[in-house]
Every structure is written in C-alpha cells, then in structure tokens.
C-alpha cells in the first residue's frame, strides 16, 4: 500500500478546555471600580487581578480554604511571610511583598466601603522597608553617540529611530506613553505633545528643537510603516508598525535601542527606554532645572518620586568637590 493508499487518520478530538476559575467574591467589582473610577489601564487591572488571585490560592491551600473576603489579619500576615520566604532575591521579595500588600489594602478598603465586611484586616499590617536604588543613567556623551549612529543609518528606519530617541530624551516619556502616542497628540505648531499618562491624567510636554526637527523628518515616512488595508486604523497612531499589533511595541523599541547601543560601543544592558527617561530628568537637574518642573514633565503625582534624581546629582557634586576642592585633598 502506498502512502497515497493509506486511509487518512481520524482527527483527534481536542481536550476540552477547563473553564477559567471563578474570581473570589467582590474581586470582579473591585477591578471594574479601578477602571471606571480611577482610570486604571488594562495592564494595571491585570496586575491587581494576578496579585489577588495569588493570595486567594494561598488561603485556599494553606489556611484551611479561607475565602479572600473572609481572611483575617493573621491569614494575610502568613501570606506575606510565605511570600518573603519564597526563595526569590531579597530586593525582589521586598518589592513583591509591598506591591501585594498595596493591592490587598485597596481591595479590603473597597470591600468595607461596599459593606462586604465590617473591618479592614490589612490595616494593621506593616509595609516592608525597601531600599531605593538609584536610577541607571547614561552620560550626555553616550546619548549623543546613540543619536549620531541613528542619524547615520538614514532611510525610514533610521529617521524613525532618530525621532523616537530624540523624543524620549527630550521629553522623558514613559515607553508606553511614547509607543501609544496618537497622531492628534502633536500640537498644531508641533512644539509640544499632549500626553495621557497614568490614571488618564493629561500633561503638555514641550519638545526641543532637535526633537521637532527629527519628528518633521520622520512624518513623511509614516506610510512606509503601515500595512495595506489597515491604513485607516494605523493613521491614528504617530508610530505605526508593520507588526501584527499595527503599532510599535515596547519590546521592539527596547530591542532597537539595544542594537543602537551596540553600534555606539555602549553596553546594551545599560540601555532601555526607561534609562533614557532617567537621563532626561538627571541631565535637566544637572543643568539647573528645578525639581517641580521636572516632576510635571515626568508626570509624577508625588514629588517624592522625583526626588530620587536629586541623589544622583548630589553624588556627582560630592565627587566633583572631592576631586577638585583643595581642602578635600588635605590629609588629617
């Protein structure tokens, strides 16, 4: 019997998919509240959902099947202790514990407000202390080298990358804000961007002249990055892409910057969109910008978040004094 004579194999029935586990009581309503009242993004909503489901799974397995909405302070403290001893690196464990505790506090606060329970069991739990690491930054010369390499590439790809890099360095946008920029974010005079940040808050971000020039050079190339038949939808974005999503993704932008770092003889591990955001803030402060202005441009709700950059500047000032002040060289 030849291969052609062999009867075709019957299709194997696929395994029935398990229905998703039902959410614990009130979690669905809590997540809807985050979106409706606080303008939480889809990623933020998913993160809260994962955190609460993880707590619920622990309570079910380790605390006698206790339901999330019925957990006591001792139950939650046991979960946080379990998390801290989970074998992850110490700094990561502290950050994870703090984030999960924040999710729990917001969930139980919502529960009390909706008469889901009388008291908040998370209110007596202590927030773990976490060291605050200084942000990684590049020197002004490093950024200049990357810009020079991008400009040398030429063509639509080079002009788009130059525009992305100039905007990142000139505005300090979050990577999600940059890749998701709608075309209408660019003001009529092309001197600023109207950016929608965390919580749906809008802010006006001025563009430097080099950033405006790079953007003007790139805009005629936008059709090059569009897919035939999908142009109508892609026209809405400042940075469309031929990828499946139709827009440039955070991951792809990160890859492009690392490739650029290699060409500029920089360590690619030290380069990312977020590092350029740090560079924007630090270099501004280095050149005399006030902290409140930097806070507004970064879109920080709390100036305490922005103050981390003052430590970087202070460290540089101390090094300068120690290296050049005559009294610093005197031995006791």
From TrEMBL:
GO biological process: cell division; chromosome segregation; DNA transposition
Coiled-coil region: none
SUPFAM superfamilies: DNA breaking-rejoining enzymes (SSF56349)
Location of the region described as Disordered in the Swiss-Prot/TrEMBL record: 1-24
PROSITE patterns, per database record: CB, TYR_RECOMBINASE
Core-binding (CB) domain sequence ranges: 21-112
GO cellular component: a single term: cytoplasm
Assembly with partners or alone: Forms a cyclic heterotetrameric complex composed of two molecules of XerC and two molecules of XerD.
Protein's job: Site-specific tyrosine recombinase, which acts by catalyzing the cutting and rejoining of the recombining DNA molecules. The XerC-XerD complex is essential to convert dimers of the bacterial chromosome into monomers to permit their segregation at cell division. It also contributes to the segregational stability of plasmids.
Full protein name: Tyrosine recombinase XerC
Species assigned in the record: Aerophototrophica crusticola
